[in-house]
Amino acid sequence: MDLENLMETYRQRGERALIEALYAGGWEDRRLASQAGRVEFLTTMRVLADYLRPGIKILDLGAGTGAYTLPLADMGCQVDAVELSEENAELLRGKVRPGQRVRVFCQSAADLADFPSGAYDVVLVMGPLYHLHQQAERRSCIREALRVCREGGALLFAYISNDMVPLTECQYRDFFGPEEAAAYDRETFQVENFPFVFLTLDAMRRELAENGVQVLREVASDGVSELLAGTINAMSPASYQEYLRYHFYCCEKPEMLGRSNHLLFVGRARG
Question: Is the predicted pLDDT of residue 73 greater than 70, yes or no?
Answer without folding.
Answer: yes
